[in-house]
Amino acid sequence: MQNNNKIMILCKVVDNFGDIGVVYRLARSLSDLRPELELTLVVSNLESFHKMASAIDPNKQIQDFKYKNSTWKIIDWNLKTKRNADLLTPSNFPFSIILECFQCGRPDWLENLLFSDDFTETVQILNIDYLTAEDYAEDFHLLKSGTRKANIKKRFFMPGFTEKTGGLVINEVPSFDAKNPGASAKAAALSALPLSLHSSVRAAHSGTPSGGAPIASPSSFNIFFFAYEDDCTAVVQGISQFQETICETEQDFSVTVFVADGKSSIPFENAWKKINSPFKIEKIPFLQQEEFDFFINQMDFLFVRGEDSLARAALSGLPYIWQAYKQDENYQLVKVNALLDQMESYFSENDFREIKSFWQSYNDYENPTDSDSLTKMLISSRNQKNTEGFRRFSQKLHKNGNLAEHLLAFIDSL
Fold this sequence. Notes:
Elements: E1 6-11, H1 18-33, E2 38-43, H2 46-52, E3 62-67, E4 70-76, H3 81-87, E5 97-101, H4 108-114, E6 123-128, H5 136-140, E7 144-145, E8 152-157, H6 188-191, H7 195-204, E9 220-225, H8 233-247, E10 254-260, H9 265-274, E11 280-284, H10 289-296, E12 301-305, H11 308-316, E13 320-323, H12 332-343, H13 349-363, H14 371-382, H15 387-400, H16 403-413
Parallel strand pairs: 1-2, 1-5, 2-4, 5-6, 6-8, 9-10, 9-12, 10-11, 12-13
Antiparallel strand pairs: 3-4, 7-8
Helix pairs in contact: 1-16, 8-9, 8-14, 12-13, 13-14
C-alpha cells in the first residue's frame, strides 16, 4: 500500500526566483493543511531558495528545514552520486508521490533510480504546470501522460483561474493592526521590513479590514512596481499625470511608488529622473516570502510580472497590472488576453475598457505603451470605480479553492 504522506517535490530553477517562489509557496500551503506530511524538496539552486527562506543553507546538499510544526528534507538537485547511494536506493525509496514542477524533469540520480530494472514500486508523478488562463489549462488538468515504465505513472495538474483547473495556491496573508501591533502574532512581518518601508506603510494605512483590502489615507496613493527590464517612460509619465490630475482638486495628494530592487528598477529610475522626479519612490530590497505577501497587501495599486506575483495580485483584490514574459511574435498578448477574458465579466463595460486598453498596450512590445490609458486606470482606482471588479474577481478565485487542497484530495483518491 502506497504511503501518500511522503511527497517529493522537484524544482529546477530556470529563473532566479519565480520557480522556487511557487514551489516554496506550495510546500508551505501543503504543510499548513497537513503538518504531518513528510515533504522532501529537491531544488537545483539553493542560493535562490535561501533568498526566499533565510534558514536554508545554500552550501548543504542535504538538510532539514523547520516550517512551523513540520520538518522538510531539502536535497540539492546536483547531489553527488556517491552521497545519493547512501540516501536512496530502489529498495528503500519511500516516495509514492512526486510533484514535478514546471515540467522540470528529474535529476540524473533520481531518473536512474526510478527507471532501473530492479525498481518495481508504483510511483505517481504529478506535473504541476505553469499558470495560464488559456483554455488548454482545463483540457490538460488531470490528463494522463506516458512514461517508459508501467509502474511510473504521470498526470498533469494545472493551476488556473477556473473551477475546472487546480486553482491557485492560497496562503494566509500576515495581518497587522496598526493601532495595536502587539495584538497580532504576524506583526513581525512588518517590523522585519527596512525602517523606511515600515514607517511609509504605517503612515499610509490605519489598518487592514476583514475584507483584506487596506484602508488608505485619502491624501496618499501607494503603488508597488515589479516588472521586466524594459523602457518605463510611459509608465512614469502615466503615474505623473495621475498625480497631477488629482492634485488639481486635492493639493495634499501624493503618490509613492515602491520599486522592487534589481535590474528592472534601473529603467524605472532612469525614466523617473528624466522627467524631474515627479513623485516619491522607495526601493524595496528582496523580502522573505511572508514579508512580501504582507507588504503588497498594504498597497493601493500593483504592477506585477511573471507567475507568483500575478497570483498574489489576483488574490489580493487590489487593482493590478500584469506584465507577461516577452515571447516571439508578441505571443504574450495571447496569454494576457486570455486572462482579460476571465476578468471581464466582473467589471462595468467602461471600467474594463480602460483596464484592457492599458494591459494590452503595456504588453505589446512592438508598439509604444500608452501613458494616457494608465492615467485613466489609476484615476478610476483612486476613485474606487474599478476596485469592486478586482475584489469580485478575487472572491471568485478564492471560491475556486486552494490548489494545495485540491492536490491533496486528488492524491488521496489515487
